[in-house]
Design a protein that fits this description.
The chain is of the alpha+beta class. It is built from two helices and nine strands, in the order H-E-E-E-E-E-E-H-E-E-E.
Length: 151
């Protein structure tokens, strides 16, 4: 005896397929919360302190300017740029960072290397009107900026 598929069963099968596809899409997209690079877009910062000892970053011009999902600025000697994302929540991540390749005084070159490493390792952020703090994957404060990238 052959079984026939009723309209209700077809509708149920289609509904289940749509629900499964939606669940796969949400899983692939990282859940219902999306990244929001606009959280920092339009802001400019100057580095004041960091988690490294031995070098005072305030002695160098190190800046971060966020615009349209990109971060860039001066890293002590060179200019740098790359993409960044924020979210969900306070998550922060940079893409691959590119930099000019000029040489400078050894202390500035060392500060630049430290800064770019800490920026690359940043995993979360906190922002107020006048301070941006980046934290590493362990939640340790790594870079602290004040508002304005002016020299």
């Amino acid at each position: 005896m052959a079984r026939t598929i009723t309209g209700a069963r077809v509708a149920l099968a289609v509904s289940l397929a749509v629900a499964a596809a939606a669940a796969l899409c949400l899983a692939a997209c990282g859940g219902s919360e999306e990244t929001d690079p606009a959280a920092l877009d339009g802001t400019e910062w100057r580095l004041e302190r960091w988690s490294e000892s031995g070098i005072d970053p305030a002695a160098f011009i190190i800046t971060a300017v966020f615009s349209e999902g990109m971060v860039g600025g001066t890293s002590g000697v060179n200019s740098y740029s790359g993409s960044y994302t924020t979210g969900p929540g306070d998550d922060f991540e940079t893409g691959e960072l590119a930099s000019t390749m000029m040489a400078g005084p050894e202390p500035a070159m060392e500060a630049e290397a430290v800064y770019l490493r800490l920026l690359d390792e940043a995993a979360s952020f906190a922002q107020t009107d006048d301070t941006l703090t980046l934290f590493d994957a362990d939640g340790t404060e790594s870079l602290v900026f004040t508002a304005g990238a002016g020299e």
